[in-house]
Structures are given as C-alpha cells and as structure tokens.
Write a structure and sequence with these properties.
Elements: H1 5-14, E1 16-19, H2 21-39, E2 45-49, H3 53-61, E3 69-76, E4 88-91, E5 101-109, H4 113-124, E6 129-138, E7 151-156, E8 161-162, E9 178-180
Length: 187
C-alpha cells in the first residue's frame, strides 16, 4: 500500500524513538570492534544487502581499519510493504564468492527468511565462511530455523521499526535514529 510523504511524516511525528543517533553510533562502534577482532586478518568480502543496509554498511565500513572488498546484493521479501512475501532476487554479487570469507551486512534481522536465503546462496557459491552483521535484531520466537547474526548492534522489541536504513512503506530510511510505529498506526 502506497502512502504519501505527508502520511510518512505523520507516522514519524507520532512514533516512539527507541534509539537516538548517538546510541546507534555507539552500537556501530561496538560492532566494528567485534568485526575487526574476528575478521581483520581474513580479507573479507563485505556484501551490503540493498536497500536497507546501504546506510548501515556505509557507516560501518568507515570504522573498519583493515583491507576488505565491498559488493552488494538485493534480495527482498518486502519491497515498500510492511509484511514479507516471497523472496525476490533483484541483484546478485558480481564478485566471486568462492573461497572467500563473506560478511553479509543487513539493517535488521526480523524473521530471517531473506538472510537465510542469502547465507544459503553464499554457501552454494563456495564461500570459506559466511558471517552476518545486523544493526538491529528483533526479539521474538518467529525466526527461521538456524538463522542468527554473528554481530548485532541493537535489540528491539517486536514492533515495526524504521530509520537508519529501515523504512516505513518506502519512506524514513534517512532518519539518524531508530523509531517504532505506534501500535495504533501499524498495519
């Protein structure tokens, strides 16, 4: 369901701020330290999951002080909707994954179906290892079997969240903090 910019602005104005820009930056600093400790010597290929992780990946990469390569992929279940459907592959990585240590960076780990498909794809291409970094992980029991993030910045309750790469019906990815839709606004 499409919305107007005015409707998106109303959702933003009425939202609950869960994390400030400063709290997100602190989480990114912590994630970067953990990633550096684990992967600095591995010549990793970082895969940005478009479109949501573009902001997260950009901010995270500037904190990683070691050689790495960057590529992207685009697999989605959401589009501009607030609930997921079938996974659609819009772009696959151009770089060879064979023998590489891969770090998949995503904005959020919710139920994990998209991440499960991405990790499975990477393994099918012969990666030496696949790691997942997610800025946000939702706390609930609906995760796809076996899906987990190796590096998590923030945990949130089971609400519809947006900001810092995550969208509300195609809008509000550009916010510096993380917000939750008020319960009476959700679909």
């Amino acid at each position: 369901m499409s919305i107007t910019p005015r409707q998106a602005q109303a959702v933003y104005r009425q939202s609950d701020r869960l994390f400030s820009a400063e709290q997100v930056e602190e989480a990114l600093d912590r994630m970067a330290a953990e990633i550096s400790a684990s992967l600095a010597e591995c010549n990793p290929l970082v895969l940005c999951v478009m479109t949501g992780a573009v902001i997260v990946t950009g901010h995270l990469l500037t904190r990683l002080d070691f050689p790495l390569q960057l590529d992207y992929l685009h697999a989605t279940r959401y589009g501009a909707e607030t609930s997921g459907g079938e996974i659609r592959w819009l772009a696959r990585p151009a770089a060879s994954l064979a023998g590489r240590t891969v770090l998949v960076v995503d904005d959020i780990l919710d139920e994990g179906h998209t991440l499960a498909a991405i990790v499975s794809y990477c393994r099918s291409k012969g990666c030496a290892a696949v790691h997942v970094a997610a800025l946000v992980e939702k706390r609930h029991l609906r995760k796809a079997p076996g899906v987990m993030a190796d590096f998590v910045g923030l945990e949130v309750e089971d609400r519809y969240v947006f900001g810092f790469g995550m969208d509300y019906k195609g809008y509000l990815r550009n916010l510096p903090g993380i917000h939750a839709v008020r319960e009476e606004q959700s679909d």
